[in-house]
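Model it.
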Amino acid sequence: TIGKRDSNNKLHLYKNDSNISLSYTVQSDSEISDSDFSNSKVKVDNYNKIKLNALYCLQAIIKSSPKLFYPYWDMFIPYVNDKSNKSLLSLIQNDPIPQVRATAITTLTCMVDGAKPYLSVATDSLFHNGLLYALKTENNISIINLIIKCICVLVQNSSYDKISTNYPVIIRDNMVPLIFHDDDKIKESALHCINILLDSHFDSYFLTKNLDIPKKLLKSFENINVFKEKDNYTIINTIISLIKKTESNIVKTESYSILSTIARHDIEIIKENWTIIKELIDSGLNDNNDLIKINTLKVLESYTQAINLNYDQRHENFNLEWWEDIINYFLTQINSENPIIRATSCDCISNIPETIFEQMN
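Modeled.
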């Protein structure tokens, strides 16, 4: 709909209180001549171009004046399950043109990015519910990926302590099936979203509980699972399995990043799986892909830092012999041509406890 211009509106946006509509009337086939059909198609094409250009303009406004734009959020956010009532969420969920849906998602992502001070509880809930609904109903792979990325930005800008609904758990549970998607980019985005949630709302139980794998995904899970026992259908084992079995560098890189997050928050989970994780570290540091090497080193960095912070309580489990074995990993990478690899190796060395340094020859 087109609204009337508000004379007090500094951004010169339109108030959505007019009865004027951009919708067009569709005639029956018997009423349409060839020329009418051609004209009708032109009108539809023009209407879609108007929507796209309006969304591009909205993105430009949001990027240039986010604080000034904030008071007008409710003109673009409210979702009513009515195709005649247009909002960004209704466009994402209902518009038949993929480019319009994709542009609406990127516009919504622009709104949410850096908007933590402006997000209210009601707005937060609308965003979460609308995007999760869109995630379940969208079939276009590129748009699914955009929706996941928008959810990631929303997670980073939401204050979940103020919302009664446990959205971190709901989002996480919606991301788990996407780990087994056929498209590697969707796998990577889903893993990245789980990683963000783990870092901000760490839950050891989520990592170790048995997953209820839907039947349609069970074969995909079994194809990558290196733990054959049925009671090992857990997220931690899925991440380990992905690293060992996947051929996709982007999926492997994000999986190593999740291991790094786990190591930062829960030493025990890493210690319990250390034998196989050590194999993954060997493999990652010998990979030709620098991003995989960097994220592998970050697993060691996070793990050694967490150990060092409470070393007085853990020294029996991580003695001189253990550290000497680990130091070899750092030393093999410290002369790398990649400056990030060199810097991360130095960070790992700085995590060696003082008492261990004193015991070294």
